[in-house]
Design goal:
protease, 311 residues, Papain-like_cys_pep_sf, Ubiquitin C-terminal Hydrolase UCH-l3, 2 domains, alpha+beta, ubl conjugation pathway, seven-stranded antiparallel sheet
């Protein structure tokens, strides 16, 4: 692989503009604040959800999942890719969801070609193909938060780290599937049509969250829905359309901030503040330097007396 995958945030604006940059049309993400079927239904056409949770490291592998059943036939018949790298599970979950809803969703030329190329591979090779896709990796990385201190491509988790994982849930062929690249196959949670999804998904998520202590609240749930501006235009909801357009502008602004490293700016700002203070004090600069030299000299003399040699 020609490059690494950086960490991106679980954020509706990040996910929405990421898939738009990949060529997906008329789809957006909305953060869900409660496990409420009515809230999901209020969003209109829903293609699935992306769930973020703390991954239980150290668990022994099992022949069957804790909830639902493995559908090994679906591992080859659906687009199911094994997760082969760190930091890309969010994008992988999103792409798995969308590629399995092609027909309902316009996934665009690039993802359609990717699906046609990788679709006949076994899950492990699909995962390798996804992780080696320059287009998908570069698009993903363009939404990573800029940092001058951490090379995310070299970071590996330790046993003491909190590790978080993304998975997708969607209705495919009238079955509710859990798509988790760390599992050996898609997990079936029973019959579910797209129109039933908002009610069938809630108990599945409730059972999953119930596995954790009551004090654990670090979960995030994103709904993948039809662009809410389309419905607002169709029903003539001018206020709703304006709200959605304002939200898009806010997302654009936040995404632009993520791409910038502000350390240099802050450094120049501090230098400007110091310069202004010194100029206001006349010859304060020279005095400040001499005082600093004096304190350093005094500290070294005291250290020598105590037998400490400073480098």
């Amino acid at each position: 692989m020609s490059g690494g995958w950086n960490t991106i945030e679980s954020d509706a604006g990040v996910f929405t503009y990421l898939i738009e940059k990949l060529g997906v049309k008329d789809v957006q993400f909305e953060e869900l604040t409660a496990l409420d079927s009515d809230e999901i239904q209020s969003l209109g056409t829903t293609y699935g959800v992306i769930f973020l949770f703390k991954y239980p490291t150290g668990e022994a592998p099992s022949d069957k999942p804790k909830d639902g059943t493995y559908d090994h036939d679906a591992a080859n018949n659906l687009f199911f890719a094994a997760q082969t790298i760190q930091n890309a599970c969010g994008t992988q979950a999103i792409i798995s969801l969308l590629l399995n809803r092609e027909g309902d969703v316009n996934i665009g030329k690039d993802l359609k070609e990717f699906k046609e190329f990788a679709g006949e591979f076994p899950p492990e090779l699909r995962g390798e193909t996804l992780s080696n896709s320059d287009l998908i990796r570069e698009t993903h990385n363009s939404f990573a938060r800029s940092s001058p201190f951490i090379d995310e491509t070299q970071r590996t988790a330790t046993e003491d780290d909190d590790v978080y994982h993304f998975i997708a849930y969607t209705s495919i062929n009238s079955t509710l599937y859990e798509l988790d690249g760390l599992q050996p196959a898609p997990i079936s949670h029973g019959p579910c049509t797209p129109s039933d999804f908002h009610t069938k998904i809630i108990p599945v998520l409730q059972r999953r969250i119930a596995r954790y202590p009551e004090s654990e609240i670090r979960f995030n749930l994103m709904a993948c829905v039809k662009d809410l501006r389309i419905r607002a235009r169709e029903i003539g909801d001018e206020d709703g359309l304006e709200q959605q357009e304002d939200k898009r502008m806010q997302w654009l602004w936040e995404n632009s901030l993520r791409r910038h490293n502000f350390v240099g700016f802050v450094g120049e700002l501090l230098k400007g503040v110091v310069k202004a203070k010194l100029e206001a004090g006349g010859g304060a600069y020279d005095k400040w330097v001499e005082e600093a030299k004096g304190r350093t000299k005094k500290r070294r003399e005291e250290a020598r007396k105590q037998g400490i040699v400073e480098e």
